[in-house]
Write a structure and sequence with these properties.
Elements (H helix, E strand, L loop, with lengths): L2 H20 L3 H21 L11 H17 L5 H20 L6 H21 L2 H5 L1 H21 L7 H21 L2 H27 L9 H18 L2 H5 L4
Length: 250
């Protein structure tokens, strides 16, 4: 699957996400979110020009299967310690899988594992009770952010010297406004949005540095930039404990 095809899939999934929220199609919403994270993971790994992983899809496909396995076990009646063991076994399987291939150095394995940790953490968050509690707030915040990001890319705002401040306030205003619309608690909405905005900028900076170091130039497809930022924002909702902060549990 080339870069253009991935962009088409990401755009189509975003439209399906809007339809899922408008018509309250919960299975469609969860499937689309899983697809967006999976595509981001696949594109991040296989798009590296110097990576031998681009010609080896088995590790990537196996990781997707492990995602399904972890989701099933985390959503079942297993005790907490069993779930934690399964989580660790998932990474051990990935570790063993990598050593079964030739030509993959430590740096490639580290990049792969870092992307897997981020994507798996986001997927587990999506299928958790915390996400379901504030599903509408999170999804509509992401959709509003998606629209504003595309407008900013069209106007070239993201490439200014103030892009970090711009990204911070873009996330902060999007999350705070949507949170206030659904919860009607201004103070908690502002505090929760502040945490999401900070971690979104940090996560996105990490992802962009991983992309920069493997490219000969600093130019990126605009949709790569936008979807990287959406995944970073989803991870920020998870790390900042958005659900608890929104109800005043600091």
């Amino acid at each position: 699957m080339n870069k253009t095809q991935i962009r088409y899939f990401q755009t189509a999934l975003t439209l399906f996400l809007i339809a899922g929220e408008i018509f309250s199609l919960i299975p469609l919403t969860y499937s689309v979110l899983f697809g967006l994270v999976g595509l981001w993971f696949y594109e991040s790994i296989t798009s590296r020009k110097s990576s031998s992983l681009a010609n080896k899809t088995i590790p990537t496909m196996t990781s997707w299967l492990l995602y399904f396995f972890v989701i099933v076990t985390f959503q079942s009646e297993f005790s907490e310690w069993v779930s934690e063991i399964i989580y660790l076994v998932t990474f051990l399987v990935t570790f063993v899988l990598f050593f079964s291939f030739d030509g993959i150095d430590a740096e490639e394995f580290g990049d792969f594992l870092l992307h897997q940790v981020i994507s798996l953490g986001v997927i587990i968050f999506i299928f958790s009770d915390s996400f379901y509690t504030n599903k509408e707030i999170i999804i509509w915040s992401l959709l509003l952010l998606y629209v504003l990001q595309n407008i900013a890319m069209f106007l070239g705002v993201q490439y200014s010297n103030y892009q970090y401040y711009f990204k911070f306030f873009l996330v902060f205003l999007s999350v705070a406004s949507i949170s206030f619309m659904f919860s009607s608690d201004l103070i908690n909405s502002l505090i929760a949005a502040l945490g999401v905005a900070i971690f979104s900028v940090l996560f996105h900076d990490l992802v962009m540095k991983l992309r920069y170091k493997d490219r000969s130039d600093a130019s990126f497809d605009t949709q790569i930039y936008v979807h990287d930022f959406l995944i970073s924002c989803l991870a920020a909702f998870y790390i900042s404990n958005f659900t608890s902060v929104l109800i005043g549990l600091f």
